Each structure stands twice: as C-alpha cells, then as structure tokens.
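Handout, section B. The chain below has 356 residues.
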Amino acid sequence: MTSEVSFESLESLQADIADLLDHLPSLKNRQYIQQALSTIVRLAECEIERLDWKILSAALADMERGFQLFYNYRHVRKVTIFGSARLAPETPEYEMAVEFARVVTQMGFMVMTGGGGGIMQAGHEGAGRENSFGLNIQLPFEQQANPIIEGDAKLINFKYFFTRKLFLLKESDAVALFPGGFGTQDEAFECMTLSQTGKFGPVPLVLIDHPGGDYWQSWSEYINRQLVDKGLVSPDDPSLYTVTDNLQVACDAITRFYQIYHSSRYVGNQLVIRLRQDLSSAQVEQLNATFSDILVKGKIEKSQALPQENQDETVDLPRLVLYFNQRDLGRLYQMIGTINQMGTPSPEAAAHPERK
C-alpha cells in the first residue's frame, strides 16, 4: 500500500510539473520560477545529504505558508514588535506594549509578533486578533502561541528560526523593540546590522521603554561609548534608530517616516526612492548640497518610473534616482528624514499612513 501511495503521488507530481512547464512561458514571474526549478534540478544531480533535503523541503514549506498568507495583506503596512516573552501583564513594559499596539492599529497599521507570551502577547492584546499576525516557532518547550492569536488563520508555526525571521523582517514596515533578553538583543542587533548593510529597509526602528525606564537608554549609551567613540561603527549609524520612553514619539517616528517617503529599490546600480508627492527642483538641489557625500557619481535627480519598473504597483509615484554608495546607510536615513520634512502630506496620506 505504501508503495502504491508513493507511486500515485509521483504520478501526480509528474502531471503538475508537466502542466507548470506548459504554462511557464505565459506566467508573470517565469524567470524566477525557472531559476527555482533549475536550482532543484541541479541539487538533485548532486551528492548532498538526506538532512540537506529535509532542511530544503521544510524551509520551502515554511516560506510557502508565509508567502501565501501575506500576499493578501501586501497593501497594508505592518509593525513588528519584539520583546521579552517573560514580562508579565502587570509590568510597565507589558502595559506600554499594549498601548503602543493599540495606537498603531488605530492609525491603520497591523501588528506582527513571534506569537508567544510576554511582549508578544501584549502586542496582540493591544492590536486585537483581527489586526494581528503571529509567527510562532515550533519548539518542544516554552514557545506556545498566546491565547489571543491561537487558532487564528494569521498564525503560522514555523519550523526554522531563519524562515520565521525572514518574514518578521521582510513583511515589516517598522520595527518596535521593547526590553528583553538574549533573543531581543539578538533581534535588535540583527535589525541594526541588516539596516547598516542595506539588506533590510529602510524602515523606522524604534526602541521603546516605559516612561522613566532606562533599558534602551543604557543600551544606547553603550553603543555610543564602545562602538561609536571607538570608530567601530559610523557616527551616523545611530540615525538608524530612535530611542524613546514616550509613546507619542514612538508612533510619530513611524508615521513621519512615511510622510513623503514611500519606499525604495535598486534598479541596476541606481537607488530609486519612491515618493508620495513630488519635490520641487529647489528641494532636490538642497538634497544634493547636503547629501552629495553619499553619491558614487552624478547627482540626485527627479524621475518617473524607470522602464524596469513598468510592472510595479508604484509606477505612478514620483521618484528620486541616485548612485548611492551603499555604505553610508545612516546618512541615507538622515536624507529620508529631510525629505519627509520637505512637503506636506496629502490629506489621504496623512489619514492613512499605513497604505502602501
């Protein structure tokens, strides 16, 4: 019976692959589908371990669930909340996380957490089940989904930490970090590292304490004393994040980031910055005067969508294009801050900062 089931499964797979190949020329993302299939074929011809195949197949299954879930929410900006799973509901950090999540969802954002207890549960409590995503990790102990998100269709149980982290960052338009232990510190430094190297973002990173708390302030002092002052990071790198114990400051750091700035991507060697509204020529000249140090060559220039962006959903948005040196990310964040001060958002943009 077992071999018969396997044989039928193989026949079904063969039919599915044949059908996919027949339709491949007409598929929108055929280039990348072909690349993925070619990679599988090349691996199948190699001598790799059984464990390697198990990791590959389980990671793909993790990503399949994530891609399918978030596709339907791709037009709504999301805030990822990190923090300790050990903080109890009566602690001021938990209460601050509840209130923060409540305020950002009232502004239209959705909230993502690791799906567990502590700060993660606080985020879901403040956001409400309908505005929450839980990205849980399968562990033999400790990490159970909190009761607010348990059973919801927006809860995913990931096998691997790396696939889970991929979606916690890939799908986030802002990151809020509350006090926590080794895991939270790991998440904080990974966010900084990926932002500093241009592998994540630009998005606002906000390190939030309860009023009067000094967890992140002490952390920031350590960064300045041990890293900035000793030349181990750039003096501009603290511009990657905001440290605050004020709820309004935390929320403003997120909404202000998308006041004029919309998003960005690379087209060849050019960084394309999409804007919610056009800047004047004088304002662009001001940007050139202030931020010419981050350019490899040329100037910051106004542009419409480039030919390579014709299928992009943001094709109608005005743009700035520049040859960014891909090194001074702290300065790039400063430039985005300057851009956001240069215009007044439209009533729609002001009312709906969460819309992509």
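Note. Confidence is low (pLDDT under 50) at residues 1-5. Compare this with the example in section A.
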